[in-house]
Amino acid sequence: ITGMIRGHQERLDGSGYPFGLQGDQISIDARILGIVDFHDARPREPRAESHACRRWWGAEVCDAFYRAVAA
Fold it and tell me: CB–CB of 30/10 below 8 Å?
């Protein structure tokens, strides 16, 4: 769990923080927590643009998240 929390602000493209991790350096769990946290903090904003979403968390995480939200 601590790894998820530590990595949830990281982005696949390396633009996140606190460590500037990118790609496979970020666990799938941290990416899932990251997209949930992002959307929880901005409930009134529309979805992140699909290219930014995919760049930050990956297509599989974005697609699964939006399918779950729509259900």
Answer: yes
